[in-house]
Amino acid sequence: MLVLRFSHVFFGALWVGMMAFQTFFLMPALAEVGPDSGKFMAALMRRRIPVILPIVALITLVSGFWLFQRLSGGAPAGLMRTPMGLAFGSGGLAALLAFLLGIVVMRPAMMRSTALQQSLASASPEERATRSAEIQRLRARGAMTGWVVMILLLYALGAMAVARYL
Ligand code: HEM
Asked: How many structural domains are present in the chain?
């Protein structure tokens, strides 16, 4: 139980913290830098952020649903009828949705835009223009989804923080 709770809170804090840094600081800074950001993005990818972040998120999710199951004593519907259960449950669902959006929309957009950015050097001038437009489109999609993911994660964090006092 101790390990489960520790993993949940520890990795949950890392997940929200990493995403907040990415959404509020990293993405706007990269957009400002423009084409020069390619090298930096490639260096970031080499540090396996697209692998590490989903693992951190998965540990939080699995431990969270496990904790919820334990807290409910095998009756999750009953727990959901209490204000505390509703807060843990809705926060948990928001976190799950954030994870799915991150995996289905954000991650592929980030990875594809980085790959395109790296291919720019060897591209012909016409190709470069189309690829640059595609990179901008993918980055905009990634940034937009990043905001939605962030709002869902902040809701989850807020709900978890106050659930026991409701
Ligand atoms: C963004 C992701 C998440 C973060 C940052 C987070 C954070 C936290 C924190 C800080 C606590 C301690 C609250 C307290 O003891 O008063 C907690 C507890 C809890 N969380 Fe989460 N959580 C996340 C996702 C989830 C998910 C997906 C679920 C699944 C339903 C969940 C279910 C729970 C439950 C049931 C507890 C109470 C554990 C206990 O009985 O002590 N959490 N969470």
From this structure: 1
Centre of ligand 1 to C-alpha 91, Å, is 8
Who has greater pLDDT, 10 or 127? 10
Q: What distance in angstroms lies between residue 109's CA and the mean position of ligand 1's atoms? A: 29
User: Which range marks the domain in which residue 52 is found?
Assistant: 2-163
Measure the CA angle with vertex 44, ends 123 and 119; round to 5°: 5
* Amino acid found at 75: A
Answer whether residue 113 shows pLDDT above 90: no
What angle separates helix 49-72 from helix 83-101, to the nearest 10 degrees? Answer: 160
Average pLDDT, the chain: 93
Mutation to probe ligand 1, out of 8, 53, 56, 65 (largest number of atoms < 8 A from CB): 8
Provide the whole-model pTM: 0.93
Q: Does the structure show a pLDDT above 80 at 74?
A: yes
